[in-house]
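4.2 Preliminary Data

To establish feasibility before requesting continued support, the project team ran the inverse folding procedure on a target of 123 residues. The structure was first converted into the token representation described in Section 3, and no sequence information of any kind was made available to the design step. The complete token record follows.
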């Protein structure tokens, strides 16, 4: 299973999300910035999904998503933000936007849905 890439400049939030997802048996990689995330993609690391923060130094969430969309129009991307109005910045970018804080079970279920859409699941 390809890993989930978590992009967050806050190490506590990134590690907390990684631990939650790893307990649910998802492989997870952390990037501390948008630039670090792009470097991982450029190195050829296969990711099944990206979870990114909205506000980050050097490269914002919308900038990162735009760059990722240039590489893959279908990559599942979840954006987390504490700012409700931030969702407008992702208009037309095909992302799943959620407000922080996100509950652990919601993070797991949403990740599962994005990685394995219902039409891909077998009985």
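Position-by-position output of the design step:
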């Amino acid at each position: 299973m390809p890993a989930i890439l978590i992009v967050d400049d806050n190490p506590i939030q990134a590690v907390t999300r990684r631990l939650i997802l790893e307990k649910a048996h998802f492989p997870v990689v952390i990037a501390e910035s948008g630039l670090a995330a792009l470097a991982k993609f450029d190195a050829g690391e296969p990711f099944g999904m990206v979870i990114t923060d909205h506000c980050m130094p050097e490269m914002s969430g919308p900038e990162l998503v735009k760059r990722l969309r240039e590489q893959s129009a279908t990559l599942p991307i979840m954006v987390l933000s504490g700012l409700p109005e931030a969702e407008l910045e992702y208009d037309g970018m095909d992302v799943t936007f959620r407000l922080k804080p996100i509950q652990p079970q919601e993070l797991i279920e949403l990740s599962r849905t994005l990685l394995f859409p219902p039409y891909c699941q077998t009985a």
